Structures are given as structure tokens and as C-alpha cells.
Amino acid sequence: MSRTTLDLWVGVFVVIGIAALFFLALRVGNFAGVDLSETYTVKARFDNIGGLKVRAPVKSAGVVVGRVDSIVFDTHTYRAEVEFTIATRYEFPRDTIASILTSGLLGEQYIGLDAGVDFDMLGDGDLVQMTQSAVVLEKLIGQFMFDRAGAAND
Amino acid sequence: MTELLRNIGSMAINGVWRLGLAARFFALLLRYSGQAFLRFHLTIREIYYGGFLSLLIIAVSGLFVGMVLGLQGYETLQRFGSGDALGVLVALSLVRELGPVVAGLLFASRAGSAITAEIGLMKATEQLKAMDMMAVNPIARVVAPRFWAGVLSMPLLAAIFSAMGVLGGWLIGVVMIGVDEGAFWSQMQSAVDFRYDIMNGVIKSVVFGVAVSLIAVFEGYDCSPTAEGVSRAITRTVVGSALAILALDFVLTSFMFRGQS
Asked: Which parts pass through the membrane (chain A) (predicted)?
């Protein structure tokens, strides 16, 4: 086979391969999703993070605005310290409430941000003061059972 | 009894010796790669024979694997009332695991065995020696282009496999079974991360490409120059590549996806 035909077929092969990669990136993956190239980092302390994991989404009003970066246990306050990044184009007031929510009944957990009313905005490295822990199903059921037992005794 | 122990010992020593030889061969291969790149059309030729001609088998197998994933995945998911998540299941299992691994296995048995056979036969018919006599380095002229062609082809083939698989899953899930098309794609897109899932799959396929190509050229170059030796070398290529792919896949997966999601 002559060299030019060979080059042509190899070119076709490379084009198909790269087209497949683009298909995976754009159609299958969320490459065009939330742009997290410019971000700022915010910290929050929770009493209980439940099943929150690193890379879990941070949502506000259901829209993904960032991702969880790291989760560590703070030995001074005995609480979980969660660091998450938010895209720079989303700004939140200083009195924003961060809560750990669950998508669906058994879905993965994420951080929900409820914007406050302050005029100052959160900056890089700030601490979100008001937080709400994850709902632990066992505790909830235990409380419910306890209440029922108390009601039955009255 | 002593005979048995002696055999086991010699097998172990032989294995380590061959590993050392392969490492030295790899170093030599990298050293002469520059020389091979100066005549890049040799590599192009090998990409045609190794990569382009594998396209059909890769595409067809990818389609069928995706279709089977669609059928089996739907069967299981609909028991939990989450048939809509079929796209996630198909895409994640293909992009993370099945794409690189199955494409690697197919590539090893289709192209790797051919490379070993070609180099082995060249050695048996003393073509490699003849090249050496003419001051043509056989590693730069014969071995390096085949190696680099394999390394370059593997990621492309794995991507094509995954893409065809997703199309196969879509064909079964959406067109035949009737999963909602919007849910299929949108759930897939929100679950598959470009950097985390797709790029790790690409990294895997590059590693498998290096492993398969190295095993193929080494076994060919190292075989005993007889008809029996060549056939044994081909068997060793296919078996060794398959084991290397599966073992490397385990190691890479435990590095990449360790309990993070």
C-alpha cells in the first residue's frame, strides 16, 4: 500500500478516536457543566456530617455552585470542618446558612446554601457561621419511638 | 522431591531473570526511540496495521458489550424502580472499567499477537541479524515503531470502545425498552465527571497500551528462533498481556477510585 493511502487511513483512525473522546467528554460527561476554574474556598463546621463525602456537590436553590474539597475532624471543637470551593461568579452573603441535605430519600448527601441578607459577601477562607447538621435517620427513628412510648404511658 | 524443588527454584530464577531482561530491553527501546521518530512513517504504518485494522472488532465488541449492559442493567435497576439510572450504569462501567480493560484484551489478542509473530519470525529467519550486519539497528527500525504504534493506538481504541458501548446501551435502553431519553442522558451527564471518570479511563488505557506493546515486542524479540519458539512466544504474549492488564487494572483502580464516591 502506498504511503499516502496509509497516511489517509491512519488519519481517519485518529479522527474517529478523537471524535469518540469528544463524544465522551461532551455528551457522556459533564465537561460543559459548572465551571470551577475560578473559585474561592469557604469553611464550615458541622456537628455531624452524616455521609457527606469529598467531591460532593454544593448547591444553592438546587443549582450546583461548587464542590466539597476536604473534610477533617477538628480536635479543638470536636466538630467536623468541611472546606468547599464555590465558583467565583456566585457570591453569597456572610450570614448564609450551610446545611447538609440528602437528594431523595436514599440519595447522596450534599451541602445546601441558603443565602442570608447581609450586605458583606463571603470571601476566600471565610467561615460560614450558621450550619445545620445532617439528619441521622436512626436518631430520628429513636426519638419518634421514645415519644410514642411516652405518649402511651400517659 | 529434590528434582521438584530444583525445578521450582529454576522457574523462579528464570522469571526474575526475564523480568530484568525485559526492563533492560525497555530502557534500550526508549534510548533508540528518538531514532525511530526520525522516520515516523514506520510508526504510522504500524498504527495502520495495529490500530486501524482493530477498529472493526473494537467497535462491534463495544456495541455488543453496551447492549448487554443495557439489557442486564435495566433488568436489575427496574426492580428498584430506578430504570432511569440506566445511562449512569452503562456510562460509568464502560468509561471507568470495561472500555480500557476489554479494549486492551482485544488489542492484545489481535495486534499484540501479530507483533510478536512478526518479530519472532523475523528473528527465526535471521532478518534481524541481517539488519544488524547492514548497520541498521533492529530495535530502532523494527521494535520501537511497533511499540509506539501500540501506545498511541490504545487510548483511541478504548475511547471508541466506550463511545460505541454508550451508543449500544442507548439503543437497547431508549430505543428498544423505552427508558426516557432525557433522563438517560441527563442523569449520565450529571454522574460522569470529565476529569475524574473519563481522564482516569484514558490514563488506564495508556498504561495498558504500554504494557501490552512492551510484552508483545519483548516476547517477539526474545523468542527462541524456531517454529515452536515463535508459537510459544505468541501464547506467552496473549496470556501475559491479559494477566498484566487485569493486575494493573486492580492497582490503578485502587489508586484512582479509592472509596471517594
From this structure: 6-26
